[in-house]
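Record 1 of the preview.
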Amino acid sequence: MVDWHLAGEQGLDWVRRVRTTPEFTTLVVLMRSGALSDEQVRDAYLAGASAVLIKPMTLPDLDAQLTALVAFYHHTASRLTA
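->
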């Protein structure tokens, strides 16, 4: 999970760099920020983000986001490996 705004570099640049590293091409990369425009969300996916999350305000909200994301990936993986 990487934040859009990192100290020293932008999260988007980090995602691009990770995606050019052969060992990390299948790594699930979650990009998050407090608020993103549609264009920023698109840029995150084009850079190689696996999912883009808007930062929740509460821990239960984060739990709900991650639970839904894990369920999605399990569902997708089970379809691809069946």
